[in-house]
């Protein structure tokens, strides 16, 4: 697919088919996705992939079946996601570097979503609040000093939403051409 078309046609996918996602394919896509610009080449990221039965680690964060606190809607929603990828970066003590690192990690996520879309695979970048909480962090083995940039939900789309209109960049361009 042509790059322009790929960028415009990629959509964030919320609802997936039950079909499994190949771990090897995702590893291969990530290996390409990490070719981002990265000031100082800190490369502070890692990727925690959760699939199969391990999805219960996330689905059971709001109670297990049988618990009084069990949230069946949350459980079913999360078990309906074929694969999760937590994108995690080591937080640099220097604010400027932390921001650069976060920016580079964001580029990886966009690269991955385009590469996945090219393969017919959907994805959404989720930033739900509980990905910063201890229960989620413990369930995925996230270490002190690591920051979760996003929880990616990955799978084959069962529904592709309509595109939401974008403000043309031309409406937002200031050209300075006078000395
Ligand atoms: C940093 C970031 C965080 C996001 N977090 C969420 C989220 O928590 N829940 C959600 O439904 N979508 C989330 N999204 C996806 C956006 O809602 C989505 O990109 C937007 O609606 C435009 O749709 P499109 O990606 O299909 O063009 C997030 C996107 C970004 C870049």
UniProtKB/TrEMBL annotation:
<dbReference type="InterPro" id="IPR052530">
    <property type="entry name" value="NAD(P)H_nitroreductase"/>
</dbReference>
<feature type="domain" description="Nitroreductase">
    <location>
        <begin position="7"/>
        <end position="156"/>
    </location>
</feature>
<keyword id="KW-0288">FMN</keyword>
<dbReference type="InterPro" id="IPR000415">
    <property type="entry name" value="Nitroreductase-like"/>
</dbReference>
<keyword id="KW-0285">Flavoprotein</keyword>
<dbReference type="InterPro" id="IPR029479">
    <property type="entry name" value="Nitroreductase"/>
</dbReference>
<keyword id="KW-0521">NADP</keyword>
<dbReference type="Pfam" id="PF00881">
    <property type="entry name" value="Nitroreductase"/>
</dbReference>
<keyword id="KW-0520">NAD</keyword>
<dbReference type="InterPro" id="IPR026021">
    <property type="entry name" value="YdjA-like"/>
</dbReference>
<protein>
    <recommendedName>
        <fullName>Putative NAD(P)H nitroreductase</fullName>
        <ecNumber>1.-.-.-</ecNumber>
    </recommendedName>
</protein>
<comment type="similarity">
    <text>Belongs to the nitroreductase family.</text>
</comment>
<keyword id="KW-0560">Oxidoreductase</keyword>
